[in-house]
């Protein structure tokens, strides 16, 4: 496998791991979110499951073994109610967007278009959950990494 292909596979695996974490996180969101937003949470959960499955196929097509989901993930904060579930949903989407921004840089052609679409979808969902946007979705949380703000990197699981 060439160095470029190895880089693609590494980025695909990171995106797959992020999707596993998002699917898990949306299980928590769905259990706490207010009834009026459950359909939106379900749609996001379904979207992440579909992306996860597509990424697993892509990894296999490139000769890799898809990274497995963890049995559980540490949440970034307690989620006792609907307000916290909304914050968690926005955080999940921001983290996924960060990983897809890495994937956009690592791949080309059709894969880049697919990664950019996934980045856009995650950014739009984050705006819907949070009610506000950032100038460069998928990159805003990386500012904290370089400035030492203590904000968790986008590639960490929720």
Short summary:
This protein has helices spanning 3-32, 38-61, 82-106, 109-130, 140-147.
Give the number of helices.
5
Shape: globular
Backbone structural class:
mainly alpha
C-alpha Rg, in Å? Answer: 15 Å
What are the low-pLDDT stretches, counting only 5+ consecutive residues below 50? Answer: 141-158
Question: Secondary-structure element order, as H and E?
Answer: HHHHH
Which percent bin holds the helix content? 55-70%
Amount of beta strand:
under 5%
Cα-to-Cα separation, first versus last residue: 31 Å
Number of beta strands:
0
Mean pLDDT: 86
Largest sheet, described in full? none
Structure report:
The protein is mainly alpha-helical and 158 residues long. Helix content is 69%, strand content 0%. The chain has five helices and no strands. Helix 1 (3-32) runs antiparallel to helix 3 and helix 3 (82-106) runs antiparallel to helix 4 (109-130). The longest helix is centred in the first third of the chain and has 30 residues, at 3-32. The chain is globular and about 50 Å long.
